[in-house]
Task: structure prediction
Amino acid sequence: MDYKAELKNALHIALLKKNVMHHIAGDKSKTKFGYYVIIAAAIFGIIGQQLFMSFFRPSLTFSLLNGVIQIVSVVIGIYVLSFIAKSIFKGQAKHDAFFRVMAYGMIVTWLAILPQIAIISGIWGLVLVFVILTTIHKLTAGGAIGTILVAVIAMLVVSMILTPLYALLGFGAMGGGSFNLNGGKTGTMDFNRGGGFQMNVPGEDGGTVQWGEGGMKVTTPEGEVMEINIPNFE
Result:
């Protein structure tokens, strides 16, 4: 496999080159590289979280677990998008052909290595999805927009259903985990398995602020404690 050539193809798709989209869609041998692009996107996201998130930096374990979830979610999401386009809005492409083009286009999410410009990646990605739907599935503009909206709603519903499962498996904040605020310099936020959290923020002179289930607890540098109870706090 000529990785340099395939990277060039991915960049051309990201730049909305329709002739390259048709070429990748029709070549079954390109599927493997599509998966490589998706996996690399997750890896770059993990690196970005660990190296470039200055204030709200998750633990490495948390980032790795979410990276795995991201890969699975992207693959499923692309096929769901294609299924909606074909079954509801009369799309004309085969699901695998659509997957290849979308997977190559995921190179735009490599920008996530710099969280500060992730919004650019998101906007660019939406435009790319629209163009791929109209080019590969041959949808009208209205059909492409409708496909995106239905897919977003479907993924939100699936996410709500799977959230308790993630908790049981130990994924995400609900399953237990920890964030370091500003690399741990300004405190930590620890999530408990089964729900609830506690935030510890050290004061400049040695005091702390703990915020969790039940309310807030402030400890002064001299050891004096002030508690603020909040009924039914979750």
